[in-house]
TrEMBL record:
Record-level GO BP terms: cysteine biosynthetic process from serine
Record-linked NCBIfam families: cysE, EPS_EpsC
Source organism, top-level taxon: Bacteria
Pathway: Amino-acid biosynthesis; L-cysteine biosynthesis; L-cysteine from L-serine: step 1/2
InterPro entries: Hexapep, Hexapep_transf_CS, LbH_SAT, Ser_AcTrfase_N, Ser_AcTrfase_N_sf, Ser_O-AcTrfase, Serine_acetyltransferase, Trimer_LpxA-like_sf
Family: Belongs to the transferase hexapeptide repeat family.
Single GO MF descriptor: serine O-acetyltransferase activity
EC category: transferase
Pfam hit, one: SATase_N
Serine acetyltransferase N-terminal domain mapped to chain residues: 14-118
Reaction catalysed by this enzyme: L-serine + acetyl-CoA = O-acetyl-L-serine + CoA
Name this protein carries in UniProt: Serine acetyltransferase
Keywords: Acyltransferase, Amino-acid biosynthesis, Repeat, Transferase
Amino acid sequence: MAEIKQKVAAIDPVWSRVCEEAIAAIAAEPLLGGLVHSSLLHHPTMERALAYRFSLKLASGEMSEQILREIADEAYSSDPSLGQAARADVMAVFDRDPACHRFLQPILFFKGYQAVQAYRVGHWLWRQGRQDMAYFVQMRVSEVFGVDIHPAARVGKGIMIDHAHSIVIGETAVVGDNVSMLHSVTLGGTGKEDGDRHPKIGDGVLIGAGAKVLGNIRIGHCSRIAAGSVVLHDVPPKTTVAGVPAKVVGEAGCSQPSMSMDQILKNCDC
């Protein structure tokens, strides 16, 4: 048995750690045994566990757990990138959120992580030409988690959305890898225009709480958007913008703002 566990850990260290933490969690709080077993330990892979959580959270009188579970299982089995992104997202939350002390926390308790994984299934449906089912997933994610991500939007891996209340990401938005954002962020349009109308967020960007990024503009990689800012124009890479409307107030302050999570404006022309 020990040899089998070692092989599993070598193949999938993230899932192995989640399972180890799950066993410890039950020992510390036996009343959570049913939840932890059904959500984590009952499943042979992380993908199967995520499919179960997806179906459990989004099921309603309109759509059963069984149907949603079948959809998610099909998505994860046909597209390995979904599972890879889910693991990168777990590590992103663990590394950047000081309230996250274990890998299992995002999977069980953090609605930002769960909403992003549900969006990824909805995006898979969209790419399969199943737009109406993708819209259903979007609707349920918005109702359950308070996060509204259009299924056509393109979101990279290593995403951390802290608190995740009132997040809005529009249809033609693109979010790069290793992006961090806080609650009440909007990546939206500027009116009733059709076509490509939403922001393009580069890799490694940090977006502060309440920031609004509007229109088909580009946010350069490794830049920072201060909390409460309204961004209406392109942002150069490795800079910090702040204000309403936002303007460049200095450099980003470090090479990876989304990972350092430093939101203090220092020595800037504010």
